[in-house]
Design a protein that fits this description.
The chain is of the alpha/beta class and 481 residues long. It folds into two domains: 224 residues, Rossmann fold, CATH 3.40.50.2000; 240 residues, Rossmann fold, CATH 3.40.50. It has 17 helices and 15 strands. Strands 1-3-2-4-5-6-7 form a seven-stranded mixed beta sheet. α2 runs parallel beside α17, α9 runs parallel beside α10 and α9 crosses α15. The longest helix has 18 residues. The radius of gyration is 22 Å and the shape is globular. The two termini are 33 Å apart.
Length: 481
């Protein structure tokens, strides 16, 4: 088990962006939580520090908590391929998807419990009685009983789920229930994700959020956006005015730089040439996960791009370098299938499809590159087949980009159709997606209106101050009177 360093972030830096009443509310909540927790430590445990929504949120949420005087630490599980195959299977089943079609039987329980017993042994010397431990997602569920026996107050948080019950979701919950039902609180991104046997004070609903000051979301001027994309090899255009590194300030106060990269865009029969600066980009940013359906976006784009009048429109599918994401065994297979699918398209379309693998060795640089890609995009798609909560949707809306997304999971809570984005009732209908792309490409006023309304929606509901206030409420609940 590894510990991730948390860089303290002054809460005032967030409060300065908020209306006075909101700044007062989050400051008061953090003060109450600090007094309530006293010398207890709040621990967060998940499966990876790189890639995925949980790893995106924790650095800033815990940074603000530390900045407010709350002792917070972050641990990441050690695992093995069989363990992550099993937990990926559970992840897919919770979404109502068969995934690899494998079993969750006795043999799988043996592997799951053995790996988590090893991790528990590493944790117990660190955890003091009365500490609060928040366990994230199926990978950690088997730690609940051992931590409670050690005197910890245990919260289990599930970031994924399905609005409707099915044989698949029932199988996943039957596997998880013996581990999680004794947690003091069970936290879900949507109430609809909660199985029927969770009720009362144990249930807590907490949607995710984004930090507007993070490297992925902070404001960038158009010249900086262009310089980042050209320097990193993601776009062709005029090189930055100086050959000096494009530097940026990390959250820990040190300086970083955007590097020159080779090979970020996958080779195909049409080459690996980056899109030109003047191209209108359609972008999807996500993990290489079947449920994100990058392949479906590619096919819909190909249908749209075959029409006259869209020669300047390019598609960029952006995900992490699969070698840098340890807890997702399907990533490499999904990426290679997208490369093959791109190669099957007509040459006139193939040359406008760009499959990007962003480096994971410097997560700050990675975040800044995603920020620049999203800000340069003409429109952003999130065509998930299932989604716990689409952080990439929130990020795109914050940057005032028009978004087309599936009407699934938490995305329904983020977008009001035709007001601050467009929703796809059937994410498998590629013709409707192609038509929605075409509509926004032709109607610039609509695209701008949706983008402006989307940013206002995120400012109102999905920034970290709301999340921090809910954390304080959750600590009150689990610590009791």
């Amino acid at each position: 088990m590894d510990e991730v360093t948390i860089d303290e972030i002054p809460l005032d830096s967030l409060c300065r962006l908020l209306a006075p009443e909101r700044a007062h509310r989050v400051g008061e909540a953090m003060g109450r939580a600090r007094a309530r927790l006293g010398d207890r430590t709040v621990w967060h445990v998940n499966a990876t520090a790189r890639g995925g929504g949980v790893a995106e949120m924790l650095p800033t949420l815990l940074g603000y908590s530390c900045g407010a005087g709350i002792r917070s630490r972050w641990l990441v599980l050690d695992g093995e391929p069989d363990f992550f195959d099993i937990t990926k299977r559970i992840h897919n089943l919770l979404h109502g998807n068969l995934g690899d079609g494998g079993r969750l039987g006795t043999d799988e329980r043996v592997v799951y419990e053995r790996v988590l017993a090893d991790n528990l042994g590493s944790m117990l010397p660190l955890i003091a009685p009365g500490d609060v431990v928040m366990l994230h997602d199926p990978q950690t569920a088997g730690l609940v009983e051992g931590l409670r026996a050690a005197g910890a107050k245990v919260i289990w948080r599930c970031h994924v789920g399905s609005d409707t019950l099915s044989r698949e979701t029932d199988e996943a919950w039957a596997f998880l229930r013996p581990y999680i039902e004794r947690a003091e609180a069970l936290v879900f991104s949507r109430k609809e994700y909660c199985p029927e046997w969770v009720a009362g004070e144990q249930l807590f609903v907490m949607p995710p959020s984004i930090d507007p000051l993070s490297l992925k979301n902070r404001d960038l001027d158009p010249r900086t956006v262009s310089d980042i994309l050209v320097r990193s090899g993601l776009m062709t255009g005029s090189e930055p005015e100086t050959d000096k590194p494009i530097s940026f300030d990390r959250r820990d106060g040190s300086s970083g730089a955007v590097r020159r990269h080779a090979g970020l865009i996958a080779e195909s029969d049409g080459g690996s040439t980056p899109p030109p600066e003047q191209a209108r980009l359609i972008v999807q940013v996500s993990r290489w996960d079947r449920l994100k359906d990058m392949a479906g976006v590619l096919v819909a784009f190909a249908r749209m791009a075959a029409s006259d009048g869209f020669d300047d429109v390019h598609l960029m599918l952006v995900g992490p370098d699969v070698r840098g994401v340890t807890d997702d065994p399907e990533g490499a297979e999904v990426f290679e299938s997208c490369v093959a699918l791109a190669g099957d398209q007509p040459v006139s379309v193939r040359c406008r499809i760009h499959l990007v693998s962003l480096p994971m060795d410097d997560l700050d640089e990675n975040a800044l590159m995603v920020n620049a890609i999203q800000r340069h995009a003409y429109l952003i798609v999130q065509k998930s087949l299932a989604e716990g909560f689409g952080l990439t949707v929130t990020e795109a809306m914050w940057k005032a980009r028009p978004v087309i997304a599936s009407r699934v999971g938490g995305i329904q809570d983020q977008i009001t159709h035709e007001h601050d984005g467009l929703l796809l009732d059937d994410p498998t209908d590629l013709d409707v997606l192609a038509a929605s792309m075409r509509r926004l490409l032709l109607d610039h006023d609509l695209a701008e209106r949706l983008g402006t309304a989307g940013r206002a929606r995120v400012l109102d509901q999905f920034l970290d101050d709301r999340h921090l206030v809910q954390h304080a409420e959750l600590f009150d609940r689990v610590l009791g009177p």
